[in-house]
Amino acid sequence: MVISRENSPRWLIFLIDGVIVISSVILAYLLRFNFNIPPVELKPLPQIFLYMVFIRSVSFLIARSYAGIIRYTSTGDTLRILATLLTGSVIFALTNVGTYFYNHFFFIPFSIIIIELLSTSFGMVSFRLLVKLAYLELQHPVRAKAEVVIYGAGEAGISVKRTLDRDAETKFKVVAFIDDNPNKQGKKLEGVGIVAPDKLPSLLSPRRVSQLILAATSFDSHKKQTLVDQCLEYNTRVLTVPPISQWINGELSFRQIRTLNIEELLEREPIRLDEQKIAEDHTGKVVLVTGASGSIGSEIVRQISGYNPGKLVLIDQSETPLHALTLESSEFRKGASIDFILCDICNEARMRKIFESCKPDLVYHAAAYKHVPMMENNPVEAVITNVKGTRIVADLAREFGVRKFIMISTDKAVNPTNVMGASKRVAEMYVQAMNGSGPTRFITTRFGNVLGSNGSVIPLFRSQIEKGGPVTVTHPEVTRYFMTIPEACQLVLEAGSIGKGGEIFIFDMGQPVKILDLARKMIRLSGFTPEKEIPIRFTGLRPGEKLYEELLNSGENTLPTHHPLIMIAKVREYSPAEVVAAVDGLVKKAVTGSNFDLVRAMKTIVPEFKSQNSVYEQLDQ
Length: 621
What we know:
By secondary structure, the protein is of the alpha/beta class. The chain folds into 3 domains: 10-139, no CATH class; 142-260, 3-Layer(aba) Sandwich (Rossmann fold), CATH 3.40.50; 275-615, Rossmann fold, CATH 3.40.50. It is built from 21 helices and 22 strands. The relative contact order is 0.07.
């Protein structure tokens, strides 16, 4: 039989199935009578032979067992064939019952019926399986298939292997399973050996394993990091699969097996929150979020929605992201009413009307300009949005008796070297100064870069890698702290729930990461070799950028909280009247003064503000 990309004619499949039935009937008689059929049994053989072939042929026509595409034969096709054959054998048995009651003899020996059923079943299923294997071998020879290792020999791991085997367009051969369970190690799963994790280097070293697929249900972050580092050392790509709950109709699709993201690699152990306390703060309450469609703001909205707020008031001045959040809201709405409001927080009259109409219980202030080089070139906008905008929202929160005001700040406010960081430090000072002037508790949260945010290097690197490079890094020594967006927002909710007012909460950002190392790892995770296939180019520090970020001023220290990842910064306190006067003067200069006058005023308010790689360095001399 010629195996090609074209489907075999159905009549040919029907004919081959008929030949299998004929051969099975003959084989059944030969086996039943030990290859020496007695004359008494030979006499009715032609009638029995024709009857059995006729019944089988009719059942094949009715069940259309010949109509499937052989090279795509599945378990369902096999079961349908077996059901068809069993039905025919039941007819043979009923025929025997009828002839026995009519003439007291069995038309077909029952032993013949059983042997023929087994033989025909084996023949038809084997035929289809051989055709399928032959087709796959011709299309993707074993020697041309890429070798794959699957981490996890559980349900997900088995599904990954079956998905690779089932998809004719894939060119993978599973050579081993890896599993932590000692009871599984040394055994085989669907013909593939299961080994211990410490055997991975010996698997990768002598052979070119192209990919390792993570199919375990849970992973210790340190173990995942070590595993990926081992794979990258041998140029083995690391892929992952989504949780079983996200599989399509309960089955894993080949398209769902994807490259491991750097965000997943750098994430830490799950954070334990005081769910009850957070729920008490948000359940049934009106929550207003500024910058609601940004990276941080939108994740805060998603997480808050899980605590059954009475109403969400989501404010942003960016139309397209707010529209996208509107479309997404059906996934997290969960019964709460949501107002999507397109508004600039610097529009005081408009913001006042919003506060008058919704009367929020809590305010999460995430709206800000955050891009360092952009704000270095546009200090007026940095002050108007980050300082004046914060003042407007904070003043309205105090005036309308908001219970808690939580501001999202940045590590760049610590010993700022750029306009953006200095503007956020001034905003921190103002928010702190407002605490105690009314019933509102003013709380500040401060953390570093978040993985995958709009201002993060991660999306930039990913885009550059997809285009073939080069990947641009400002400086080989530049180092940053990183945290995932969900993790940062979880800590914001926790800090907001425990805040009594006036605190600046800082988060444990883990170990700092060199941006150059991050770029190299992202290139390797994408299946390329740094410097060779994807070049890395150094562009120089941008205006206002510094090599290392800090979370505390040199003269500050911290106090612990009940949460190991949250601390309270002990910062210098300022007179509220002094801060208000300074902010008023700064906002006026944003309207009337030059950029240099404005930055000079910021340096007066924030003495630790020392510009780096900026035209404003001359103001520090």
